[in-house]
Amino acid sequence: MSLIDEIRNLRIADYDYPLPDERIAKHPLAQREQCKLLYYKCGEPMQQRHFWEVPSLLPEHSTLIYNNTRVINARLRFRKETGSTIEIFCLEPVLPRDYEQIFQTTGHCVWQCLVGNSKRWKQGALTQTVTIDGRDITLAATRGEQRGNAWEIAFDWDGQDGQITFADVLDAIGEIPIPPYLNRGTEASDSTDYQTVYSHIDGSVAAPTAGLHFTDEVLAECDQRGIRRREITLHVGAGTFQPVKSEHIGDHPMHYEFISVPRDVIIDIINAPGPIIAVGTTSVRTLESLYYIGQILEENPDADEQALTVTQWMPYTTPCQISTRQALQNIVDYLDRHHADTYMGSTQLMIAPGFEYRIVNGMITNFHQPQSTLLLLVAAFVGQDKWRPMYDYAMQNDFRFLSYGDAQLLLR
């Protein structure tokens, strides 16, 4: 059986474990860095530590790479005259397609959205009035073309004078879209709790939660110990919560996500004096996607944006013919030819047992949902025979699970 067949035939039921609701952290600890940390270095016993110890546990000369994306107030609620509430969940920009540009638009923009209670929205625009900077603004949402389970939604508001941007609109009436498995409504504290301290690039509808444990003090200690810190961007989509409903993972479609990696960061990875430590599965997917982008460029140096997209099964069907260093250098050369200082593209990469890690030597992550693609990613890193003992250990030692829960530091 070929590698791709082995991967596609993996049963998601083999990545299940019992997770009682009381073990799901509904809120973070008041002091983020005080959470528990499962420390595991491959080949050594597991240890229970605390997150504030991370700087002292990282190998010497490590480079810490984290996702600087910021969660937007992506959930909007409109109440119809009949009393029905229609929920619109902004997923990704359509017009303009650029994240930075769409947040600065005034008067009109289009998003791909999920629509809750859509059967109650027969026709016409939904409207609501909101006060922004002392002015009453009318926001209208008009439903357009349907794509799968999402809709194109055009938003119009009376901000054509250039004073009111869509970012202002979201800040005024949107809600932070906390994960559905928390089984509670959004609270005021989530606007702070569900953001990393280093988030500053708007675009995600879910937080890169492994980074929620970092504080300015922990980051400062990393600096004092000579640990290099670098930022990348992956805007987390709603697909991160999409359960694997198929029996075999080969029938599960991974979602596409936007990634952005500065040229200087790629050069730093090439010249890194020690291990690359990724903060969160989003950083892992971004970094590991770089190898395959570089391999595409090896075969086609003039590849366009669409050709450079990393598809779901590429790692298992494409022979790895070049070194990691060469792959990364290909991206640097590509950026130089296009006079660009940042690589921007998209990835659909699925990391599952059988995947060969080429850039990431360690990761900081949380404890993930049963039968999830995130759990598959961790199993691919530590080994299929190791993930379950780790999760059993966490369950037996009262670790807290999922987005607001405790953390792991995994080293190879």
Number of domains: 2
- The CATH homologous superfamily of the largest domain: QueA-like
Shape: globular
Radius of gyration: 22 Å
- CATH class of the largest domain, named Alpha Beta
Structural class by helix and strand composition: alpha/beta
Tell me the span between the first and last alpha carbons. 28 Å
Strand percentage: 25-35%
Named CATH topology of the largest domain? QueA-like
Our count of helices gives 12
Shape-level CATH architecture of the largest domain: 3-Layer(aba) Sandwich
Q: What's the order of the H and E elements?
A: HEEHEEEEHEEEEHHEHEEHEHHHEEHHE
Seen as an oligomer or otherwise, the chain set is single chain
Return residue spans where pLDDT drops below 50 for at least 5 consecutive residues. Answer: none
Question: Which whole number gives the mean pLDDT?
Answer: 94
Helix content: 10-25%
Main sheet specs: 9 strands, mixed
Number of strands: 17
Strand order of the largest sheet: 2-1-17-16-14-3-12-13-15
Write the layout of secondary structure elements.
Elements: H1 3-8, E1 36-41, E2 47-50, H2 54-57, E3 63-67, E4 69-71, E5 75-79, E6 85-95, H3 99-103, E7 108-116, E8 126-132, E9 135-147, E10 150-157, H4 166-173, H5 190-193, E11 201-204, H6 216-224, E12 228-234, E13 257-262, H7 263-270, E14 276-279, H8 281-299, H9 314-317, H10 324-337, E15 342-347, E16 362-366, H11 373-382, H12 387-396, E17 407-411
